[in-house]
Design goal:
alpha+beta, six-stranded mixed β-barrel, single chain, 5 domains, about 900 residues, ten-stranded mixed β-sheet
């Protein structure tokens, strides 16, 4: 650019000289003396310098030239202030880097397209019911029944293919020591629609899905092929057994393809095999059941609006066939977590995370803005001289904004690089602290173009955010007073600048208070979760989950096997007592229904559990009133309620012998009151809960609860041997109730650790901001301090004065932060395990801690101000 400009200006000089020479020669030929002829030519031509500038403006990109000029000047200015530049860049690095890392993770979960060829052509189709009489659901309500899928598949004009699949299908692999696999039941065109081709063998064809139970075929994942089948090159064509049904392996998926859900799929079977995969359940014939997710590949040239219009016609036709039903369709580019129910769960969490890290960036911006304000007050004469030489206010503001953007670009680039390098470590940290039973998520969170665009936009916005106010403030002053040596030390401009600095510090303290109070509440919630007594025995009690119905057991056979298993497990060395339950305590397994009380119209939502008589003894929940269940009355209509349920349903009355009516009209009477326990949700002691006596119909799917003593590994080995002696293909994983408790605690521990790191960064930035503000204020008040000391003020008085002036914005900001935190803290309720969102310990300890840190940050520069020599201060001023 510089070489081009020199060449262009050199050519312009030559052209101007040639023009003046010709004009001079013409004047000489008219009879003028040479000297007079030359001056006449110059007068006629005009100001040479001005003409050069006007011609250059026409020839060149003036704005680009000025931007480059501002950038060069800004770099020289920043180079002359290395301390300020380093502090500002580090603050921006922390703020931008943290936000880019978080956005990259959230983008991978919610915005990144499915990892399949031509993913931009794939859309997910979900239905939203606005009016519906009833609906059976397995999964999410927004899913489709099989007949609805066929209707959309056969009558649409927008897709080259529409596939359906049931996610999270559990199946036990025979010969795999009871290994439980998680797979997917798909329509036959699933791989065709996704344009996925198995690395070995083939995908499904139409003949594979013609009838259920015949020619059963399966495609296995590359991971399963390598881990379970030792990369057997001859696996295709062999038969494997899933849930007691033999399947022929027809293909092995390509490495890297793990399905269309965030939890990897280990196998894919035709959806027409649903009854074999999940014995005892016939979802194919239920036209009113939501259980299938839909993915379609859009035809070339078809817009999203055309897709919605085409499928909307089919939706309207189905609504007319179903009285009382009104639906609309949600159609989006296919990503993980794109069903409406999933988005409703993910979006609020994402909003809280983005807001928290956005507050950290706001802290960084306020910090850098304060630094720039401090520097601007020192550069007042430079700015005044530039204005006196003709620079407009806009030109000055632009120059200062250029410097801010340079700082932001340096910090943003460094922060983005650090974010990209740390994302993998962050994910590994989270995964390493999850319980073993948590499912593995296969989500790509590596930075992509979307993350790069976000980082660039955030960097630019950050530079403008922290640079605009100082630029506007610094360019607004009285020119004559600014050119005087002491003009900046007094007047409204200085007061306005001081007010702005105090406001920024107050904002930093407010934001820090919000973040630190959130951290304090989460840590208090974690401590509460670690120390809370759930109300039942967790030590030396274990649970064995058995889903015999999924293993093709009918009710009579399941009942017989369960009786034999209980007998054999009770004889295992170390086992003290055995019980059955529909739901194990804190297992994330829930059952609930609505009940009414005869004579009252209101309905009560109540969670329940079917348990054997030994349950209360095994888990250590005492019966406080009435009696427990007895084995002699297997068909008893008696129920046991918890204390909280009794108080809520029959306040001030004796609950014994009271009647409850279920939705199906069956009536039950209360025979006992059990002590409240957090068996359903940790931290919720007053949940409506009741117990039914387990009967023969409850043996197909239940938990075996075992109280033992001694070594758990030996007990677990003995229990697994007892299960294998009856059926070697039934999964037999024994889990301690302590481990169930840990599953509830683990997310809280991770969130507390991450939020603690965020709070520490916020505290660091706020401390730096407070220190810088007090230090600068003290340095700019040397004359005032000298006068106070000269007229008799003690150094303690000076210290108190400087500290009070520093603490005023801190106290105001802290109070504002506490008020905002009190209003927003209920968002964290789900992570507090019953602890109050306005916990007094957190709301007292955190403000005290923050004020102590701020006071220390203020004390150091204030202490220096006490040692000002009055004579020297007055003489210098």
């Amino acid at each position: 650019m510089m070489g081009r400009r020199k060449r262009t200006l050199k050519d312009l000089d030559r052209d101007i000289r040639d023009h003046l020479a010709r004009e001079t020669q013409d004047n000489i030929e008219r009879g003028m003396p040479p000297e007079e002829a030359r001056y006449a030519a110059l007068r006629k031509f005009g100001n040479v310098t001005q003409v050069k500038g006007e011609v250059w403006d026409v020839w060149s990109l003036v704005w680009l030239e000025q931007v480059l000029q501002d950038a060069r000047f800004g770099l020289r200015t920043l180079w002359r202030s290395p301390g300020l530049t380093l502090a500002a860049v580090l603050a921006v690095t922390l703020g931008v880097g943290a936000n880019v890392a978080v956005f990259s993770v959230l983008s991978g979960f919610t915005l990144r397209l499915l990892p399949v060829p031509g993913a931009e052509e794939i859309v997910s189709v979900n239905q939203i019911f606005h009016k519906l009489t009833s609906r059976n659901t397995h999964g999410e309500t927004s899913m489709f029944s099989y007949s609805e899928y066929l209707n959309y598949r056969d009558h649409n004009h927008a897709f080259t293919g529409l596939a359906a699949y049931e996610p999270f299908v559990e199946a036990t692999l025979a010969g795999g020591n009871g290994r439980l696999l998680l797979g997917t039941a798909t329509s036959c065109n699933y791989f065709e629609v996704l344009n996925e081709h198995p690395a070995q063998g083939r995908a499904f064809v139409e003949s594979d899905c013609t009838s259920a139970g015949e020619k059963a075929v399966v495609v296995v994942s590359d991971d399963l092929w390598r881990d379970q089948f030792s990369s057997d090159p001859l696996l295709v064509g062999k038969r494997i057994t899933l849930n007691h049904t033999a399947y022929t392996v027809i293909g092995v998926a390509r490495p890297g393809f793990r399905g269309t859900e965030p939890v990897p799929s280990e196998f894919w079977a035709p959806v027409t095999m649903q009854r074999a995969l999940e014995p005892g359940m016939d979802r194919l014939a239920d036209d009113n059941m939501s259980w299938l997710a839909l993915l379609g590949r859009v035809q070339p040239g078809i817009s999203m609006n055309q897709v919605r219009a085409d499928l909307g016609v089919i939706a309207g036709r189905i609504d007319r066939l179903s009285r009382g039903r009104t639906t609309s369709l949600a159609i989006h580019p296919a990503t993980f977590f794109d069903r409406p129910e999933e988005r409703e769960a993910v979006v609020p969490i994402s909003a809280v995370i983005v807001t928290a890290f956005g507050l950290l960036l706001l802290l960084a911006c306020a910090n850098v803005a304060n630094l720039l304000l401090s520097r601007a007050s020192v550069r007042h004469k430079e700015v005044a001289l530039r204005q006196a030489m003709g620079a407009s206010r806009w030109r000055l503001v632009r120059q200062m904004l250029t410097e801010s953007l340079l700082l932001s670009l340096m910090g943003g680039l460094l922060g983005s690089i650090l974010a990209c390098l740390s994302i993998g470590n962050l994910i590994r940290f989270v995964v390493s602290h999850l319980p073993v039973s948590f499912p593995t998520l296969d989500v790509n969170v590596a930075p992509d173009l979307r993350v790069a665009a976000y980082a660039l936009s955030l960097t630019a916005i950050t530079g403008i955010a922290f640079g605009l106010m100082p630029a506007l403030q610094s360019s607004r002053f009285d020119l004559s007073s600014a050119l005087k040596e002491s003009g900046v030390q007094s007047g409204s401009a200085n007061k306005s600048r001081q007010l702005l600095r105090n406001t920024l510090v107050g904002a930093q303290i407010a934001v820090s208070m919000i973040l630190l109070l959130a951290v304090g509440l989460l840590i208090r919630g974690l401590y509460y979760a670690q120390t809370v007594d759930p109300g039942f025995a967790t030590k030396d009690v274990a649970a064995l989950f058995l889903n015999l119905g999924a293993q093709a057991y009918d009710k009579s056979r399941a009942t017989a096997v369960m009786q034999q298993l209980r007998d054999r497990v009770s004889r295992v060395p170390g086992v003290l007592e055995v019980a059955q339950a529909e739901c194990a305590p804190l297992s994330h397994d829930f059952s609930a229904d609505h009940f009414t009380i005869p004579g009252r119209s209101e309905k009560f939502a109540i969670e329940y559990n079917h348990v054997s008589p030994e349950y209360f003894s095994v888990v250590g929940i005492p019966i406080l009133r009435g009696r427990g269940f007895t084995a002699e009355a297997p068909n008893s209509a008696g129920v046991i309620v918890t204390e909280a349920t009794a108080r809520r349903l029959w306040p001030g009355e004796d609950p014994l012998a009271r009647t409850l009516r279920a939705d199906d009209g069956e009536e039950y009477y209360v025979i006992g009151v059990a002590k409240d326990a957090q068996v359903s949700h940790l931290g919720e002691l007053d949940t409506n809960y009741l117990y039914f006596l387990a009967g023969p119909n409850d043996n197909s799917r239940n938990y075996l609860l075992i109280r033992f003593r001694g070594d758990f590994s030996a007990t677990s080995k003995g229990v697994r041997a007892a299960v294998r002696s009856l059926d070697a293909e039934v999964p037999a994983d024994l889990i301690r109730l302590e481990d169930y408790l840990e599953i509830w605690r683990a997310p809280s521990r991770i969130v507390a650790a991450l939020s603690g790191a965020l709070g520490a960064l916020a505290l660091l930035l706020a401390s730096i901001g407070v220190y810088g503000m007090v230090s600068y204020s003290a340095s700019r008040s040397v004359r005032e301090i000298g006068i106070r000391l000269a007229v008799g003020a003690s150094r303690a008085d000076v210290m108190a004065y400087v500290l009070w002036r520093a603490m005023r914005p801190i106290l105001i900001g802290g109070l504002v932060g506490m008020i905002v935190s009190a209003a927003l803290s209920t968002v964290l309720s789900s992570m507090l395990f019953g602890l109050s969102a306005h916990d007094p310990i957190a709301f007292i300890a955190v403000p005290l801690f923050l004020f102590v840190v701020a006071a220390i940050a203020s004390f150091v520069p204030a202490r220096r101000a006490m040692h000002v020599d009055p004579n020297l201060a007055l003489r210098c001023e």
